[in-house]
Each structure stands twice: as structure tokens, then as C-alpha cells.
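Continuing the batch. This is chain 6 of the set; chains 1 through 5 are on the previous pages. Same settings as before, nothing changed between runs. Recording input and output for traceability.
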Amino acid sequence: MLLKSCFAVIFALLAQHAVRLWFFLDYHKSRTIIHHRPGPCRQLDGADGGSEDLTVLDNGLTFIASGSYPWTRGRILLFNFSNPFEDAKELPIISSSLNKSDLVLYGLSTWRDSLTGEMIIDKLSSLDYL
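Output for chain 6:
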């Protein structure tokens, strides 16, 4: 009798843990695990090198630091959330201090010049794997 009781308690604890994990991972929701707006999730063509940082501006334009793996080429992509069915476009990186062939991006931030209204990528962090 004591063995059956211990088995029942252990089974109840395991079942409780499984149910908590089920709800924690949101498996009880509909087909998608994470609900988001404004529409279905899709993979961006051209952002296949891993994307570490996204900077979203007020007008929906988004800078994406792509190439976060050492075996991919580091790039900055531009995506427009106002027209989400367009693909991301690669922006040219103009810098005299960066070796673009070894660029692995992991950080990106922008600031707006109050006099001209121009958006400038302020911080471009990279890792040197060589």
C-alpha cells in the first residue's frame, strides 16, 4: 500500500510539472506558439547569416545587423515594416576603419541629426575572429 502511495505521489508531481511546462511554453494556444502582430511571421530573403540586432525607427524602417556568425559576411539590411511584403535591402557600409571581409556584426544603434534630419548609424560593433 505504501509503495502504491509513493508511486501515486511521484506520478502526480511529474504530471504537475508536465502541465506547468505545457502552459509555460504556450502550447495550449493556437497553432502558433508566439502570437504577434501585424500578421504571419516569415523569413526575410537575404537575412540568412543570422540577425543579431534590429533598430526600428518611428516611420517603420528597420536596420538589421546581419552576419552574426563568423562564417558569414557582415551586412546591414534595411526593412520597411510599413510595406512588410518587400524583401530587406542591403545597405553599403562606408568606413575606413573596418575590414568588411572579416566583419561580424553584433550591435547597431542610430541617432537623428536635429539640424539636417539625417539618420546616422552611430554604433556599429564588430568582432574580429582572425
